[in-house]
Amino acid sequence: MSVTIADIERARRVIAGTVLHTPMLPAPKLSALTGAQVFVKYENLQVTNSFKERGALVKLGSLGEAERRRGVIAMSAGNHAQAVAYHAARLGIPATIVMPVTTPFVKVHATRSHGAEVVLDGETISEAQARCEKLQAERGLTLVHPYDDPRIIAGQGTIALEMLEEVPELDTLVIPIGGGGLIAGNAIAAKAARPGIEIIGAEAALYPSVWNALHGSHKPIGGPTLAEGIAVKNVGKLTLPVIRDLVADVVLVDESQLERAVNAYLTLQKTMAEGAGAAGLAVMLAEPERFRGRRVGLILCGGNIDPRILASIMVRELERETRIVSFRLTIPDRPGVLGIIATRLGELGANILEVDHRRLFLDVPAKGAKLDVTFETRDAAQADEIMTALARDGYHPVRIEAASAME
Questions:
Q1: Which fold has domain 5-51+150-311?
Q2: pTM of the model
Q3: Backbone dihedral region of 396: left (phi > 0), alpha (psi from -120 to 50 degrees) or beta?
């Protein structure tokens, strides 16, 4: 393999005292949710809120004086960008970062705040890579690749060393996969420390690049994903052989599973996880029987999520849990009816969020109207009770999706 456990041990010495040794803590609420004994490694607590600082510092620390003077370049959807920008600034190395135009603003702003030149180009990492290569050649810069570099892989592998020193009895690690640097480095480290441990990869279903490579398949790749940090079309040449040899399986997770995992980290663990950072937990939620009773280590590898996206996820999850509900009622269009319905919903224990009159539907009389009401409930049972009561009152309630009702 291109990276050995000795390389990872050396990388650990490079980052010691500069990169945070993040907490590795039991997660009883996630354990109750999944049926496994879950431990979380909180890489979202790094200065740039992701694990990427480890590999970036190891790579930057290896550069000669001439390379440092000329500067470095990287392509990234955000976390690698911030890590390179932050540590390059610390070391006095000029940094240029090429980011897809779809990168969340919070990540673009954070990268610029560390003093890097940011170039926005392309819809995806693979498209940004072309611009990155052009600038690298024109300016004579050193590429700090986000995943396909031995020093990057070694730096990321330091996470598993820390995890298994603190919880040596782990049975399984579930690790997000983009280009494969994180899972490759940690698979090498984990297997060296505990040969019997099982490594499972978590990949976004919209970007099954590694899954395709392992299975000789041609699942379509592309589309807007919550896990933009692992939305990678190109598999690493260095990382794929490691994954083939050391990773037991790669599981694809869809967008709703990623949303649920982000929400679980926030509401149960009171911590921020971006889509890619929550991918490991999403796998456990998608296949709970696979992990039931096992001691599982999760790497919460990043917490750089757009606050607006996070707010949307929380509301959508409340809707999935039937704690936000929308009904369309058929009502007589006369003064006082809205007040009667509001009072009735209050008596039934519902908290009204939004109300919308719709008078132009042709399936009601000219003196009638449709009323869309969105409200909070305790649970699905209370929602059913409210629907039954409104039906008895003659309002003919029809359940509608809250998202469409609030458009």
A1: Rossmann fold (3.40.50)
A2: 0.85
A3: left
